[in-house]
Design goal:
It is a single chain. The protein is globular. The termini are far apart. Helices cover about 35% and strands about 15% of the residues. It is α/β, with parallel strands linked by helices. It has helices spanning about 10-20, 35-40, 65-75, 105-115, 130-135, 155-165, 180-195, and strands at about 1-5, 25-30, 45-50, 60-65, 85, 120, 145-150, 170. The protein is built from seven helices and eight strands. It has an eight-stranded mixed β-sheet with strand order 3-2-1-4-5-6-7-8, sandwiched between helices. It has a single domain (about 1-195), classed as 3-Layer(aba) Sandwich (Rossmann fold), CATH 3.40.50.720. The chain binds NADP nicotinamide-adenine-dinucleotide phosphate.
């Protein structure tokens, strides 16, 4: 799949590494072009591309900026009509221990409003960057879940296919509105990892009895 990653920070770097390893055609763009170029150079076959038009030939766009930067980052990329936008953001308070919105909306729904015509899917927001960077193997055949929520079946299928190629178990979490549950779930994961001291080698997983 042709994937454009917007952002070259913790999550952007982890996506570039794992998506390119999984055989996807990966492009990366960032506000700081040098940072994108450096990241691309570290992974064979990855291209650093200018922000404007970065998603023109992409099958999926991974939005790996902070929530506060998301709308501006997507606007700078340009036309996203009909594109699948994978929203991995969590709208965190500055101390990372709370969310700036929720209950009656979500980051994903607000981002969808900012890019009408794009097909937004919430996914990957419950995985720490360290987990994503190191790979999906939790030992003993255990797989972490990637929850996908969208009003577009195509967008859910696309994000789910990406997650599967990275080795995750995909959980269809319903419509985009259910990002209102997935963002607090990431908040709990952050509390457990940092607040409760479990560290970042953890991830929420949904199981069904055999
Ligand atoms: N870190 C985690 O473990 C984790 C886990 C799950 C979800 N998330 C979510 O994933 C997102 C990224 O987190 P992160 O830890 O990777 O943050 P980060 O390390 O701060 O990276 C954010 C990146 O976005 C770039 N950016 C900002 N505005 C941009 C724009 N207009 N165009 C292009 N790039 C732009 C920043 O560029 P500059 O360097 O130029 O500022 C930076 O490279 C956040 O929404 C976070 O809530 C993070």
């Amino acid at each position: 799949m042709k994937v454009t990653v917007i952002g070259a920070g913790n999550m952007g770097s982890a996506f570039v590494k794992q998506l390119s390893r999984a055989g996807h055609q990966v492009s990366v763009t960032a506000r700081d072009a040098a940072k994108a170029a450096q990241l691309a150079a570290a992974h064979p076959g990855v291209r650093a591309v200018p922000v404007a038009g970065a998603a023109d030939d992409a099958d999926a766009v991974v939005l790996a900026t902070g929530y506060a930067d998301a709308a501006a980052a997507l606007a700078a990329v340009g036309k996203l009509q009909g594109k699948v936008v994978v929203d991995i953001t969590n709208p965190l308070t500055p101390d990372y221990m709370g969310l700036t919105l929720g209950h009656s909306t979500s980051a994903a729904e607000e981002i969808a409003k900012a890019v009408p015509g794009a097909e937004v899917v919430k996914a990957f927001n419950t995985l720490f960057a360290q987990v994503l960077a190191e790979g999906a193997d939790f030992g003993n055949g255990r797989k972490a879940s990637v929850f996908v929520a969208s009003d577009s079946e195509r967008a859910k299928h696309t994000a789910g296919a990406l997650a599967e190629t990275l080795g995750y178990a995909v959980v269809d979490a319903g419509g985009l509105k259910n990002a209102r549950y997935l963002e607090p779930l990431a908040g709990l994961n952050i509390y457990l990892g940092y607040g409760a001291g479990l560290g970042t080698a953890i991830a929420p997983t949904w199981l069904r009895k055999a």
